[in-house]
Amino acid sequence: MFTAFSVGLTGGVGSGKSTIATMLSACGAAIIDADAIAHQLTNAGGAAIEALRESFGSEAIAADGSLDRARMRTHVFSDVAARTRLESLLHPMIRTAMRERGAELIAGGCPYAVFVVPLLVEKGSWRDNVDRVLLIDCSEATQIARVCARTDIDEKLARSIIASQATRPQRLAVADDVLINEAPLQEIQRRVEHLHRTYVRSAAMKRSSKTL
Ligand code: ATP
C-alpha cells in the first residue's frame, strides 16, 4: 500500500480519465499517469531501454534510441509469450517509477496521490495498493462518440477496443467511487471538487492515524 492516501483512477477508453485527472490536478492532487510514466521509461535514454534491448534485441529500439513502439505492438500482438515478457519487464518498472513520483509529489506538499491506471481492473494487483478506486464511467455510446470524434478511429475499431477491455460490471465491482461522466463539463467540475474535498479529508485522517 502506498504510504500517503492514494486513489486509483480508471475507466474505459474515452470515458474521461484525462479530463478528470486534469481537474483533480487543478484542485491540488498529485497526478501520476501510468501511460506518461511508461513513455518516459521507453523514450530515448529512458530507464527501460537497455533492458528492452537485451531482452528483444537492437531491432526493438528505433534509430532515435526510443522503443520502436509500432514494431513492438505488432510483435506482441502475434506472440503471447513476447507480450508476457514485455509486461513482466515493464510493469514492475512502471509501478516503481509511479510510486517514486507519487512520493516526490506528496513530499512537495500535495495532500494525496491519484494514480491514473487505464487497466487497473484488468491488472488486478493495483487494487490492493490504493485506498480508493475511482471509476470514471459513461455509456458505451458516449465512449464511442468521444473516441471517434477525437481520433481517426472508426466505430468498428472503437467497439473492438471496448470489447478488449474490462466490462462496465467488472469495473463497477472494484470501484469505491463512481463518477458518471455524462454531464456538461461545468457540472463534472463541481462533482470533481466535491470528490477532492472528500479525499483531502480522508488523507488528513490517514496521516493523523499514522501519528497516533
Ligand atoms: P483514453 O482512454 O483514450 O485515454 P480518456 O478516458 O482519458 O481517454 P479523455 O481524453 O479525458 O478520456 O476524454 C475523451 C474525450 O471526451 C476528450 O475529447 C474530452 O474532451 C471529451 N470529454 C470528456 N468528458 C467530457 C464531458 N463531460 N463532456 C464533453 N466532453 C467530454
Short description:
The protein is an alpha/beta fold and 212 residues long. The protein has helices spanning 17-27, 34-42, 49-56, 69-78, 80-107, 140-150, 155-164, 168-174, 185-211; strands at residues 6-11, 30-33, 113-116, 132-137, 177-180.
Walkthrough of the structure:
Helix content is 57%, strand content 11%. α2 packs across α5 (80-107) and α4 packs across α5 (80-107). It has a five-stranded parallel beta sheet, sandwiched between helices. The mean pLDDT is 94. The protein is of the alpha/beta class and 212 residues long. The site of adenosine-5'-triphosphate has 14 residues, from α1, α6 and α9. Adenosine-5'-triphosphate binds at residues 11, 13-19, 118, 146, 150, 181, 185, 188.
Largest sheet: 5 strands, parallel
Number of strands: 5
Low-confidence runs = none
Overall mean pLDDT stands at: 94
Radius of gyration, taken over Cα atoms and rounded to an integer in Å: 18 Å
Helix-strand category: alpha/beta
**Helix percentage:** 55-70%
Biggest β-sheet: strands ordered side by side in the sheet: 2-3-1-4-5
Estimate the strand proportion. 5-15%
The N- and C-terminal alpha carbons lie at a distance of 19 Å
